[in-house]
Design a protein that fits this description.
With 204 residues, the chain is mostly helical. The chain is 71% helix and 0% strand.
Length: 204
């Protein structure tokens, strides 16, 4: 065999091996960091955003079967219940998630704090929709105490994608409820449909 051809062959094989090894390392590192139930939770969230609530719930249940108390799956189930107006079930799910996080959250777990803040905010939304305004205010305030940045409204990327500069935030809604509750009952205006329609649920 021609030595030049052999040298090129060895060189190309080395380059090809290096490329495949690098790709395998990147691929494996992505999946190595996944916890049981993460993939199912992501698939459930995709179905949730598509409005396929039964399929979303199936994936969240699969995630919880692999990892009981998977906080993303618990939050996902709560969001399905909220969107389908099953408010009692949503409150039960959020109460459980809040209790679970408060009892086991590590001080440096910033992601966990974000989930807890979102859970309080979503519980406030449920109480709000049920007309339980004092309870809604308490939950909104708890959310802001835990992590006001998580529930401060959409970031730049969200604004670019959705064009929603004026989405109602937890702080805005809490302030509005507080101000209305200071008024005599016959002067309160607790619902403003145009503004209420802008309120969004929260995912960490």
């Amino acid at each position: 065999m021609n030595p030049g051809v052999l040298k090129r062959f060895v060189f190309y094989m080395f380059v090809l091996t290096f490329v495949f090894f690098s790709a395998w390392m990147v691929f494996s590192s992505q999946f190595a960091s996944r916890q049981p139930g993460d993939l199912e939770t992501e698939l459930g969230t995709q179905r949730l955003e598509d409005g396929l609530y039964e399929a979303a719930m199936e994936y969240y249940d699969k995630a919880l079967a692999k990892s009981p108390d998977h906080r993303g799956a618990l939050m996902g189930r709560a969001l399905v219940y909220i969107r389908t107006e099953q408010y009692d079930a949503a409150l039960a799910e959020l109460d459980y998630l809040i209790g679970f996080l408060e009892n086991g959250l590590e001080p440096d777990d910033t992601t966990g704090r974000g989930v807890l803040a979102a859970a309080y905010a979503n519980r406030g939304i449920v109480f709000d929709r049920q007309g339980e305004y004092e309870k809604a205010l308490d939950s909104y305030v708890s959310s802001l105490k835990v992590d006001d940045k998580v529930v401060s409204g959409p970031g730049l990327v969200h604004k670019i994608l959705y064009g929603s500069d004026d989405v109602s935030t937890v702080r805005q809604r809490a302030r509005y409820i507080y101000e209305q509750l200071q008024l005599p009952p016959d002067q309160r205006v607790m619902r403003v449909p145009d503004l209420d329609a802008k309120q969004r649920m929260y995912k960490p």
